[in-house]
Write a structure and sequence with these properties.
With about 375 residues, this protein is α/β, with parallel strands linked by helices. About 40% of the residues lie in helices and about 15% in strands. A seven-stranded parallel β-sheet has the order 3-2-1-4-7-8-13, with helices on both faces. Strands 5-6 form a two-stranded antiparallel sheet. It binds nicotinamide-adenine-dinucleotide (NAD) and thymidine-5'-diphospho-beta-D-xylose.
Length: about 375
């Protein structure tokens, strides 16, 4: 029986991971620690919280008392740290929050785990840890910076972050490495490319485009839309994390990506075409539209509007996943052509969720972010 502590489990990837491990492993206990920021929603994990294997704690990864109380109550074996401020645009507006949550939160998680996992010292003074424990830091390909037209990020690519978000994630990675080297703590870092799938907060490109289409709004594309991202279906990311946690070599970094590079403009056009096709095929989906629409002639590429570019906008990300594939046998199972349809269907069928998560400060955020672009 393994005891997992999953932070950020009410957010997009964390919640998908919670669902994944509950499905994959019957003999686990799970504590979810989440501060329920704008990005975290209990509604996302409401069914999972009914499972007797799960306990939810509301609190911040930055708070030593809260984290300590979890370790006092549960014999935690695995920490999987998803909790973070995750949106690049918000990091440009408020860098300090990103440094606090992403760097200091990571350090606090490491420190508490180290304290509770230490069972002695070796002759050189390094801590000896309880058998079978591990800390996994969920990081991002953005720590490697930006690529030109060719090449891929490998685990050996020098760290070269550009945005306050990616700088804070890099800082977190470096403190994880420091705990691995200085205290010989058993850790792994995974660095994944852009995820997409259910429960993605509609401030990020794909769910924002879907939401705007259903409201008949313009679709904001930054700059000329030529920036490239490497998209991975979220469940494939969850599977990669669990493989690294259970079978990854201690102390190693693993890149996770799907070899699925696409320009933003092509993602937006594909989303328009897919929604149109699904609405035509199944008139029931028309209920997801926020206005009455007797025909779909408005649903075309003219909805696209090119807006002011993101400051310091990274041009291209692309992951080389050779290491995780050869060492752990992981590969992306969901082809993008299938994953994007599954995702769009999910949004068409789950407008209640979208309304619930955007009922708070979302309108204010949208006005601020896009009002004068
Ligand atoms: P998200 O913004 O959807 O969710 C973040 C979660 O963390 C939310 O539930 C939020 O409430 C919680 N949280 C924020 N601050 C907290 C704090 N101080 N204490 C406890 N909980 C806190 O993010 P996501 O897209 O699910 O990303 C999860 C992780 O994966 C992040 O570390 C991110 O850097 C990384 N990542 C994301 C992507 C992607 O494409 N989304 C790709 C690679 C890596
Ligand atoms: O309205 C938009 N218009 C637009 O053109 C938005 C929100 C985004 N974009 C562009 C910017 C990016 O080039 O689309 C691309 C994707 O943007 P985001 O969805 O904001 O993701 P990105 O900045 O690539 O970062 C994501 O992937 C790596 C996650 O948010 C990070 O948490 C993760 O580490």
């Amino acid at each position: 029986m393994k005891h997992y502590l999953v932070t950020g489990g009410a957010g997009f990837i964390g919640a998908n991971y919670v669902k994944y491990i509950l499905k994959e492993h019957s003999d686990i206990q799970l504590v979810i620690l989440d501060d329920l920021t704008y990005a975290g929603n209990l509604g996302t994990i409401k069914d999972d919280l009914k499972d007797p294997r799960v306990e939810f704690v509301k609190g911040s990864i930055v708070d030593p008392q809260i984290v300590q109380s979890i370790f006092e109550k549960h014999p935690i074996d695995f920490v999987v740290n998803f909790a973070a401020e995750s949106h690049v645009d918000r990091s440009i507006e408020n860098p300090q929050l990103f440094l606090q949550t992403n760097i200091l939160g990571t350090q606090n998680m490491l420190d508490t785990a180290k304290k509770f996992w230490t069972v002695g010292k070796d002759e050189k003074g390094y801590p000896i840890y309880r058998e079978g424990v591990k800390y996994l830091q969920v990081s991002t390909d953005e720590v490697y910076g930006s690529l030109g037209e060719t090449g891929y990020f490998t685990e050996k690519t020098p760290l070269d972050p550009r945005s306050p978000y990616s700088a804070s994630k890099t800082g977190a990675d470096l403190i994880v490495v420091a705990y691995s080297e200085t205290y010989k703590m058993p850790v792994n870092i995974t660095r994944c490319s852009n995820n997409y799938g259910p429960y993605h907060f509609p401030e990020k490109l794909i769910p924002l485009i879907i939401k705007n289409i259903l409201e008949g709004k313009k679709l904001p594309v930054y700059g000329d839309g030529s920036n490239v991202r490497d998209w991975l279906y979220v469940e494939d990311h969850c599977k990669a994390i669990d493989s690294v946690l259970l079978r990854g070599r201690t102390g190693e970094v693993y890149n996770v990506g799907g070899h699925n590079e696409m320009k933003n403009i092509d993602i937006v056009k594909l989303t328009i075409a897919t929604i149109r096709r699904l609405l035509e095929e199944n008139p029931e989906y028309g209920k997801a539209l926020k206005f009455s629409s007797p025909d779909l002639s408005w649903l075309n590429d003219d909805l696209i509007t090119f807006v002011k570019d993101r400051l310091g906008h990274d041009q291209r990300y692309a992951i080389d996943p050779t290491k995780i594939t050869t060492e752990l046998g992981w590969y992306p199972e969901t082809k993008f052509a299938d994953g994007i349809v599954k995702t769009i269907r999910w949004y068409l069928e789950n407008q209640d969720w979208v309304e619930e998560v955007t009922s708070g400060d979302y309108q204010k955020y949208y006005e601020q972010m896009y009002g004068n672009r």
